Amino acid sequence: MQDPLERIAAALERISPAPLSAPDFSQADAFVWHTGPDALTPVPEVSRVDVSLLVGIDRARDILLQNTAQFAKGFSANNALLWGARGMGKSSIVKAVCARMTDLGHSVKLVELQREDLPSVARLLNILRSAPHRFILFCDDLSFSHDDQHYKSLKAVLDGGVEGRPSNVLFYATSNRRHLMPRDMIENERSSAINPAEAVEEKVSLSDRFGLWLGFHPCSQDDYLDMIRGYIRAYGMQVDEAQMRAEAIEWQATRGARSGRVAWQYFTDLAGRMGVAL
Hints:
Blueprint: H1 4-15, E1 30-34, E2 39-42, H2 58-72, E3 80-84, H3 90-103, E4 108-112, H4 121-129, E5 134-139, H5 150-158, E6 169-175, H6 183-192, H7 196-199, H8 201-208, E7 212-216, H9 221-234, H10 241-255, H11 260-273
Parallel strand pairs: 1-4, 3-6, 3-7, 4-5, 5-6
Antiparallel strand pairs: 1-2
């Protein structure tokens, strides 16, 4: 008969499996972090656009390219927060910049992390710390609500705690909010707190821990049309300029906004009507 202590030990091992060993990072250029159980899943083909097609965000593109290139070469670089208007290419620019590093021969891997999985980030960092590659840890659409405690886990990435952030890991995040929390929640806490200055300092100061802030703003009509022209050239399509312009302006008018996402949606429709596979 098995000893009761051995049975308890076996049960605990089943409940708490052994730490995840590092995967074969040569399998892919990008990975997705999953929890329950922990796993780094390779992404065979990343959904992205070429960096040359990112029109109207040239300054942000060039700054992020320079920052990432410094990191790829082993020099100092900053964590980056890309914030601003929806659909203006914040997540696209991160994926495009990482792809450019790979094209240039740098061993930079993209690891996507969901906001809900931030509490597990310490386990992920332990895996990446000893790997012979450099990693961009990427969290898309990052924001926090009034009672959300996930932001505390993010400090492990930005500040690193006692061990410090691994030198081979950089953190890029996108958000519609510059301070990562809604403005009305900031004002509510300030108005109801005994010490208004301290009420939101911990959460608001989180965005200050990003060394690089890149703002994305609604594009002009000229930039919007240039985005579409860039896609047309990239796919070698022959399109009547006047007709395209009229259709594109009508398309954005029906959506009440101009953005890179709206430009791609119009181009997708145009390519479909012309029988061009994307």
